[in-house]
Design goal:
Length: 195
């Protein structure tokens, strides 16, 4: 990647290879992704740790249903994220959504399955594809860290998702790795750890 893109070469020189960011392909990971929507990673992590302690591991849908919205709210979930998490648990219990089957699907089929769930959109699907299924060519154009990071690295503005897609064309077929490099740049610039 760095050999094809001088901006990524700068990231590699400054920070070394990006971390893998591997998560299990599980219900718990999807709940963690719900919690990470539009909040800091640190805040989401604190809530997720309380949630995991309340549910036990592995996180099972029946444990979430027992907590219900009030229990999730007590753990720090917003009302909306509690609703999304409970709906996801019901989808799993009622076999409308089978997380274990996602690894056998292509990227587009995985996206379709995930975005069909309440509160899970393309960003959530992309993060799951990258971190839980380790798909190599995912570009989460809705990710603020990716957009702000590449704008900082390139010292230019990318006003539309299409502009980001065009910018990342040379990263194919390893856009997931390039994205992790940009995230690495972005979080280090703010004195934080990546995930």
């Amino acid at each position: 990647m760095a050999g094809r893109d001088p901006a990524l070469a700068k990231v590699l020189q400054a920070h070394g290879p990006p971390p893998l960011l591997r998560r299990p392909a599980s219900l718990g990971t999807l709940v963690q992704i719900i919690l990470e929507q539009q909040v800091s990673v640190e805040s989401a992590k604190a809530t997720y740790l309380r949630f995991r302690e309340a549910c036990g591991t592995p996180i099972r849908p029946d444990a979430i249903v027992r907590l219900d919205v009030p229990g999730l709210r007590q753990l720090g979930f917003s009302r909306q994220k509690a609703r999304y998490t409970l709906a996801l648990a019901h989808d799993c219990l009622e076999k409308r959504f089978r997380i274990q089957s996602l690894s056998r699907m292509n990227d587009e089929a995985v996206r379709e399955q995930i975005v069909a769930r309440l509160g899970l959109g393309h960003w959530s699907a992309d993060v799951f594809l990258m971190t839980a299924l380790l798909r190599p060519d995912v570009l989460p154009v809705g990710d603020l860290g990716l957009i702000k990071g590449i704008e900082e690295i390139d010292q230019t503005e990318y006003a539309t998702p299409q502009a980001v897609i065009e910018r990342a064309r040379s990263w194919r077929p390893l856009r997931s790795i390039a994205t992790r490099m940009v995230w690495q740049w972005y979080v280090h610039g703010r004195g934080r750890d990546i995930f």
